[in-house]
Design a protein that fits this description.
The complex is a heterodimer. By secondary structure, chain A is mostly helical. Chain A is about 65% helix and about 0% strand. Chain B has helices at about 15-35, 40-60, 65-70, 75-85, 95-110, 120-130, 135, 150, 165, 175-185, 200-220, 225-245, 250-255, 260-270, 280-300, 305-325; strands at about 140, 170. In chain B, helix 1 (about 15-35) runs antiparallel to helix 11 (about 200-220). The chains are: A mainly alpha, B mainly alpha. At the A-B interface, loops of A face helix 6 of B. Chain A: One of its GO terms (biological process) is electron transport chain.
């Protein structure tokens, strides 16, 4: 059973590249790896928690009122994650801005709750939430890396927001940031990079 | 004897011929541009157009289209040409090639090739370069007047030793840019009244684009609707602003003669693929581009907004056409 979830989450049903769900944060925050990774991890937490809290109550939720109830649960969990990030790393919280609270409206969370957790038992739901989130996180990291390198000439920018000030040396300056291809750091660059990733995924699928 | 399909009168107006006439209309201004801004433009044209044709061939090959007829139609040639004359002459060649790549591969072939591209390819390339490399794109070489030696120096483009000298040339912002900056800083601008003796290099080039454009209208390659509506619209809207406050808003004549007003009016917005086909649509298209251009020039962050105005209005073309369909004869 778990194998299925790994395959679906990371490749076959990848949230960012195949289902194309949750694009708003995907495109908006991936200006560097740190942001992409942080938002990805936050999403993993929310998805795991929401899946395992919805799955046990799935038989008691009335069909007609399920969406408000699901959203209410997700919103509560997102608030927990939001406050935790604020407490753990204030600069990271400021960098991600509105997009942490916006995980509530992220279609991928509701989609997994609706499509998986409300039909399956708790343990598979936990796996599903984790691997779906992980698949999205990989996409966020790759997008962040590409946009950071091309647009700004850096790698692991702001990584010290995540793991402490003494790791600031991890930020690598590949070339002078004023020579960067600014488009990559701007919103259209996110769309172009995402479409390049989808192209790559489709190519690999076609070859098989 | 081979049978000929009707129409029996041979019409030589193929895509190929149209593109050739367009190039003819662009030539005089190019001559002036080289004289003012240097021989690099010739090198840019050589490498830029070469790269554009190469990319065109690669894309056609990948999409399983016949290469020869599509290369020879000259559309990639004109696209590259329009992009090259819009960018500063001293642009580093790799920057230019990125612009060409976005024009040909992304704006044209990714959308389905000639005839299917919703956006003007040259303007997409220009917009990509402008937002990606603002420093390079706003520094034009300073011109000390028309110099014949710029043509002779062409050979230097290929010699390695002169590359540094060429790129360290003295640069400045375009007049439109300079005035925008000083207005932004709250300075009073006094511009000489425009007369023949005070024409700047940019204004002379603009006038040649105007004349080249008239040649296209005369040759019936383009109709007068698009250019006239854009020019009038820029004139009227900037004129209204100028009447409102003469110290903050430049005169309408200044707006016509600076920036890409004439180039856009005759050569860019008349792109048959990305502009409306209905008559009313053309006029609406031109007027709105003029309005957006005046707004961006006076209130926006970039000195000249024509490229953005064209791209924005390109997306609106299907909508414009939907509402301006002429009535079919016989219908209520």
């Amino acid at each position: 059973m778990i194998k299925e979830q790994i395959k679906d989450g990371l490749w076959k049903q990848n949230a960012g590249l195949v289902q194309l769900l949750g694009l708003c944060p995907t495109l908006a925050v991936t200006v560097n790896i740190t942001n992409g990774f942080a938002l990805g991890v936050a999403t993993i937490f929310v998805m795991m928690l929401s899946n395992i809290s919805i799955s046990p109550i799935r038989n008691y939720v009335p069909e007609s009122a399920r969406v408000p109830i699901f959203i209410l649960v997700i919103a509560g969990l997102v608030t927990i994650v939001d406050l935790s990030i604020n407490a753990l790393s204030k600069p990271l919280y400021d960098a991600l801005g509105i997009f942490i609270p916006l995980i509530v409206t992220n279609c991928i969370v509701l989609a997994r709750v609706e499509a998986f957790a409300s039909k399956n038992t708790t343990l598979p739901s936990l796996y599903d939430g984790f691997f779906m989130g992980l698949g999205l996180t990989f996409v966020l990291i790759i997008l962040g890396a590409v946009r950071e390198i091309v647009g700004n000439g850096t790698l692991f920018q702001n990584v010290h927001f995540l793991i402490g000030d003494k790791y600031e040396f991890l930020t690598i300056q590949l070339f002078d940031s004023s020579d960067g291809f600014l488009l990559a750091a701007l919103p259209p660059g996110a769309f172009i990079a995402l479409s390049a990733l989808i192209l790559f995924l489709n190519l690999v699928n076609q070859k098989r | 004897m081979a049978m000929i399909d009707s129409p029996a009168i041979k019409e030589r107006s193929t895509v190929n011929m149209i593109m050739f006439t367009v190039i003819l209309g662009l030539l005089p201004a190019l001559f002036l541009q080289i004289g003012f801004f240097g021989y690099q433009i010739l090198g840019n044209l050589f490498f830029g157009i070469g790269f554009a044709l190469f990319l065109e061939a690669v894309c056609l090959k990948l999409r399983n289209y016949p290469i020869r007829p599509f290369i020879l139609d000259g559309s990639a040639f004109v696209t590259a040409w329009l992009l090259i004359i819009s960018v500063p002459a001293n642009i580093p060649i790799w920057t230019l090639l990125i612009g060409i790549f976005f024009s040909i591969v992304v704006a044209k072939h990714a959308y389905g090739g000639i005839g299917s591209n919703p956006f003007n390819p040259a303007m997409i390339g220009y917009a990509v370069l402008l937002i990606s490399f603002p420093k390079i794109m706003t520094n034009w070489p300073i011109s000390d007047g028309f110099e014949i030696r710029n043509f002779i120096q062409f050979s230097q483009f290929f010699s390695i030793s002169n590359i540094n000298e060429a790129y360290d040339a003295i640069v400045s912002a375009t007049p439109l840019d300079q005035i925008k900056t000083s207005l932004f800083l709250g300075k009073e601008v006094d511009v000489l009244p425009i007369s023949f003796s005070t024409l700047s290099s940019y204004q002379m080039i603009a006038i040649l684009y105007f004349l080249g454009g008239l040649f296209l209208v005369y040759k019936k390659v383009i109709t007068w609707h698009l250019p006239l509506s854009l020019i009038l619209s820029v004139y009227i809207f900037s004129g209204l602003l100028h009447l409102y406050d003469q110290n903050t808003y430049m005169s309408p004549t200044f707006h016509l003669l600076n920036g890409a007003t004439f180039l856009a009016a005759f050569f860019i917005i008349t792109d048959p693929v990305s502009s409306p086909t209905t008559l009313k649509g053309k006029i609406i298209f031109g007027i709105l581009i003029g309005l957006i251009t005046v707004i961006i020039r006076n209130y926006g962050g970039y000195p000249d907004g024509i490229a953005f105005a064209v791209i924005f209005m390109n997306i609106c073309v299907p909508l414009i056409e939907k509402f301006t369909q002429p009535k079919v004869f016989g219908y209520e």
